[in-house]
Specification:
It is a single chain. This protein is mainly alpha-helical and 254 residues long. It has one domain. The chain is 37% helix and 2% strand. The protein is built from 10 helices and 3 strands. Strands 1-2-3 form a 3-stranded antiparallel beta sheet. Strand 2 and strand 3 form a beta hairpin. Helix 4 runs parallel beside helix 8, helix 8 packs across helix 9 and helix 9 packs across helix 10. It is globular. The termini are far apart.
Length: 254
């Protein structure tokens, strides 16, 4: 499971069951509150603030994953983000500085908030979070026996290197740990900033046909570190499968 970027928690290959584009596919699934749907906003759109999105989140459902309660209520007291290498200056100035994890709520509400703040399809975030961790914020994975990797977090060897609901990898994502594990909102916020930067075309090292406006392949890049390689495409297939199945509807909300 060793990869450059965060790795998944399921490795089974599944067929693509939903091939629709991102625009307009943010309709809330059955069982989710009605109201805001949070579709992907177009390239160059002005993004709403975290405070605006906190108001727009549709509340009212019980917590989907009770074990997330502590992390869902944790807001970083201070976030100091280093420069993200391999991203444009515009990404660093406009997006990295916005990452603060300043929201509390249920797991589903936090995903809504992150989708709103970064102009990303909320259903895609739900599907990625299910693929990565079954929406479980306490998930730690991708163990390493390299002392240098473990030094990043201060954990003993062997140590996990991927953390939280969206499995942010500490050795590759500067400024992510420890809030990536202890705060669900920060985990979603950090991931959202990366996805939006990629979607805007602001990752500097990617070649091929990389450009703006391709959210699904940005999802694959976040996992593999490459653009449309075999691993990324396989990962996207799994995310699309969960997007079609919406297995989070089975969470016990009693």
């Amino acid at each position: 499971m060793s990869h450059w970027w965060p790795v998944v928690t399921r490795l089974g290959v599944v067929s693509i069951v939903l091939a629709a584009g991102l625009a307009g596919c943010g309709s809330g699934p059955v069982g989710q509150p009605s109201g805001e749907t949070f579709p992907t906003l177009p390239v160059g759109a002005v993004l709403p603030s975290g405070q605006d999105c906190a108001v727009r989140v549709v509340r009212g459902h019980p917590e989907e994953v009770p074990d997330n309660a502590k992390a869902n209520a944790t807001v970083p007291d201070k976030v100091v983000m280093p420069v993200w290498e391999d991203f444009t200056e515009e990404a660093n100035q406009r997006y990295v500085s916005r990452v603060d994890g300043n929201f509390t709520g249920t797991t589903g509400e936090i995903l809504q908030w992150g989708a709103c703040k970064w102009g990303l399809d909320v259903s895609v975030l739900r599907a990625v979070a299910y693929q990565e961790s079954d929406w479980k914020q306490a998930t730690s994975d991708d163990p390493s026996e390299d002392p240098a990797d473990c030094a990043v977090t201060g954990l003993p060897v062997p140590c996990p290197t991927s953390f939280g609901m969206l499995q942010l990898k500490s050795v590759d994502l500067p400024g992510s740990y420890p809030w990536s594990l202890t705060s669900t909102a920060f985990n979603v916020d950090y991931y959202g900033a990366r996805m939006r930067s990629c979607y805007e075309g602001w990752v500097t090292y990617l070649g091929g046909d990389y450009g703006s406006g391709d959210l699904f392949d940005c999802v694959g890049w976040h996992w593999s570190g490459m653009w449309k390689d075999a691993g990324a495409l396989n990962y996207v297939s799994r995310v699309r499968n969960y997007l079609g199945q919406q297995p989070w509807q089975r969470f016990d909300r009693s």
